[in-house]
Amino acid sequence: QVRLKESGGDLVQPGGSLRLSCAASGGTLDYAIAWFRQAPGKQREAVSCMHLSDGSTYHRDSVKGRFTISRDNSKNTVYLQMNDLKPEDTAVYYCVTDEAPFPCQVVVSTAGPFHFSSWGQGTQVTVSS
Question: Which pLDDT score, from 0 to 100, does residue 113 have?
Fold first, then answer.
């Protein structure tokens, strides 16, 4: 089972940028990987997702044009570039994958529930002035 570890969370002002990293170990990323977030008192939601077979990416409407998911195969790492951050982006961000394929289009457009085999421990992003 792949182990995931996020990093890069921080306190940033509105309009600022952050890049989160998700390093995978103990295996390879085979099918798809997603970034989820959970704000206090709110349901966990997927914000970005990538199909690793062809590199296609998908984003929740609320982050389209601001967030970008990318990968570095040589480092077995996936990134989430977040620009023009807003206070409502404040949340713990998790990277997630599974041992089987899953549809990114569904993951980023619905509320779940989803059951994935590998979750990171999360990294805190706080957007505040």
Answer: 79
